[in-house]
Hints:
The chain has two domains: 13-228, Endonuclease III, domain 1 (Orthogonal Bundle), CATH 1.10.340.30; 239-361, Nucleoside Triphosphate Pyrophosphohydrolase (Alpha-Beta Complex), CATH 3.90.79. 40% of the residues lie in helices and 14% in strands. The protein has helices at 13-28, 40-50, 55-68, 72-77, 80-87, 94-109, 118-122, 129-140, 149-159, 168-181, 187-200, 219-222, 282-285, 351-361, and strands at 239-249, 253-258, 269-270, 273-276, 299-310, 314-325, 337-340. The longest helix is centred in the first third of the chain and has 16 residues, at 13-28. The structure holds iron/sulfur cluster (SF4).
Amino acid sequence: MKINVKNVENEPLEICFAKILLNWYEQNKRELPWRNTTDAYTIWISEIILQQTRVEQGLDYFLRFVKRFPDVKTLAKTDEIEVLKYWQGLGYYSRARNLHFAAKQIMNDFGGKFPEEYKNIRSLKGIGDYTAAAICSFAHNKPYAAIDGNAYRVLSRFFGICTPIDTPKAKKEFTELANFVLDKKHPGKFNQAMMDFGATFCTPASPNCNECPFAEKCFAYTNNKVDSLPQKSKKINSKNRYFNYFYIRNNGKTYLHKRTSNDIWKNLYEFPLIETKSEASLNEILGKDFLKEIDFSKCRITESFTKKHVLTHQNIFAKFYIIDFFEHESKILSNFIELNESEIGDYPISRLSEIFIEKLYN
Ligand code: SF4
C-alpha cells in the first residue's frame, strides 16, 4: 500500500498527526453501511454491535438488526426475547439487553427522538464515553474524541505514552491528548480514521510499520518499542467452570430454562444444567439436583459431546448428555419449560448450546 504523505515537516507533532491520519483515511477508508448516514440510531446500533466484535463478523448482524428494528420505536416495543434472538451468536448479551432498555428510555424520556446532547446520550443505558463521543461526532459533527482500544494503541505508540492503559490515570491522559489532537472541523472523520488506522494498519500484533505514513515521527517505531506499547498493568486471570448439560428427548418434547441471575448469558435459555466445582463423572452427578426427578429405569442416558468454550474471563468446560425416554413421560422436570424439540430455534440460546444443536442435527 503506497501512502502519499503531505509535507508536514515544520508543523507541531499534534497538527502533523491529524493531517497524516486524515490523509491516510482518504486513501484507505473502509466502505461500511453505517458510514453513509448521520442517523444517530443507526450509528448507535453499529457501534454497540462493533464493541468486542470484528467488522467482518458484525456486518451481517448489523444488516439483519436494522432491517428488523429500523428505528427506536420498533426496538422499544419488541419483546426482549426477540431482540436477544437477533443477537444470538454475537456474545456479550448485556449489550442487547441494554439496547432494548435504552430504546425504552428514549421513548419515555426524550419523546422517541434520539437525543443530540452528549450528556443526554451518555445517560442512556449501555452508552459509555466512547459510544457517546462516536454518536455525537458521526451524527452531529460535534468535537468529541472517541477513544477505543484502537485509539489507545495508536496514540500510545505514536506519542510514546507508557502509562498503563487500564488505569484511571491513562483514561484522563489519553482523553486530554485525543481531544487535543482531534481535528475540530472534521471530528467524525478523524474518529473514523483513528478506528480504521488502528484496526487495519497499526494492529496489536503485526503493525505495518514499514509502510506507515507515521513511521518517521512515531515514537514506538523510532525507539524500537512497538512490541511493548501500549502497556497494561494487570493480567486478568480466567476462571474455569464445569457445565454438565442434559438434553432430554421425551417423545418430541425437550426442556429449557431461562438464566436469570447476574451471570453470563443472562436472560438466555439453555438445557437443564448442573454446574460442578471441578470436572465430574456422570456417576458423581446422577441423583443430584433435577436429576432426582428422573426415573432412569424409563430412559437411557449417553454422553454426547464435550467442548471447552472460551469467553473473555471464563473457560467453560462443557459436557452434553442426552437422555432418551423409552415412552412418553408426562410429568418430568416441573421447573423447566417444556417445548417441542422443533421449537428450540425460537429461543435465544448461547453459542455453546447452539454448537451442540448443530452437532446433533448435522
Ligand atoms: S510506525 Fe508502526 S507503530 Fe508507529 S503508528 Fe505506524 S504502524 Fe503504528
